[in-house]
Amino acid sequence: MSARHRPGHFVIVRVVENGERIPLTIADSDREAGTITLVVQVVGATTERLCSLEAGEAVLDVVGPLGRPTEIERFGHVVLVGGGVGTAVIYPQAAGLKAHGNRVSAVIGGRSKPYVIMEDALRAICDAVYPCTDDGSHGFHGFVTVKLGELIDDPADPVDAVLTAGPVPMMRAVANVTREKKIRTIASLNPIMVDGTGMCGGCRVMVGGQMKFACVDGPEFDAHQVDFGELADRLTAYRGHEKALWERLRGEAKDHRCNLAEAEKALKS
């Protein structure tokens, strides 16, 4: 798996039998060690199970690498925009783009300093890194789109391409910033996925008025052509079910049928 990894690839992970399958971007790989690096934030039952594993424990299965790799070429000045764990997506892209002779800038954001990740790793690769926080606790005080706009408006260093990964509202805002300037902009999409082959149809997205399957046609698409509204609706379709499962796992369900001991047992199962 590590030997075939390219920027943009992802894997689908299942932690326990009959558990949810979740797509996770490969943030890094070590071909000699045969390992891959995944960056995971706890946002629900499956990610909590995954992050509760101790060193030496195992997940049930990992499938990949999946998806089409990032189209790496010499653009000129490329700005990578990552929000939260989306920064894990732009990290291998930065290395690939830099190796092809590009000037690479990274704009990375989070609501506060703890949510701005991989800053030092990106500084080791990129020509410039601009951390941003919503609350001003670290770096630039404001959204990544504001900093991106400043870079675009700098006539001394024109921006030739933008790649972005993160929350849907952020990627949509990035596309809106670059659309008027007609700057090539690629977004790494994160729809619900199940099998990674396109057969289930769960990852379908509308791009340029056509239906695409993110797991096989993507996950990267022209951000100016993506229907972000439809994507946002699809991502929230199962939010109620996900919340109920997470509450049950954590012993917080309203019916109180689960207790702490049962929750701990579920985490270790």
Question: What are the SSEs and their pairings?
Answer:
Blueprint: E1 10-14, E2 21-30, E3 35-38, H1 45-51, E4 61-66, E5 77-83, H2 87-99, E6 103-110, H3 119-123, E7 128-133, E8 140-141, H4 144-152, E9 161-165, H5 168-179, E10 184-188, E11 204-207, E12 210-213, H6 214-217, E13 220-222, H7 228-235, H8 239-249, H9 260-268
Parallel strand pairs: 5-6, 5-9, 6-7, 7-8, 9-10
Antiparallel strand pairs: 1-2, 1-4, 2-3, 10-13, 11-12
Helix pairs in contact: 4-5
What are the key terms here?
single chain, 269 residues, Rossmann fold, seven-stranded mixed beta sheet, 2 domains, four-stranded antiparallel beta sheet, alpha/beta, Elongation Factor Tu (Ef-tu), domain 3, 26% strand
Strand order of the largest sheet: 8-7-6-5-9-10-13
The second-level CATH architecture of the largest domain is 3-Layer(aba) Sandwich
Largest sheet: 7 strands, mixed
Percent of residues in beta strands? 25-35%
End-to-end Cα distance, whole Å, is 26 Å
How many E-type strands? Answer: 13
Sheet/helix structural class? alpha/beta
Global shape: globular
CATH secondary-structure class of the largest domain: Alpha Beta
SS field, number of helical segments: 9
Order of helices and strands: EEEHEEHEHEEHEHEEEHEHHH
Average pLDDT taken over every residue = 87
CATH topology assignment of the largest domain:
Rossmann fold
Total separate domains: 2
Helix content: 25-40%
Low-confidence stretches: 253-261
Radius of gyration: 19 Å
Q: CATH superfamily name of the largest domain?
A: Nucleotide-binding domain of ferredoxin-NADP reductase (FNR) module
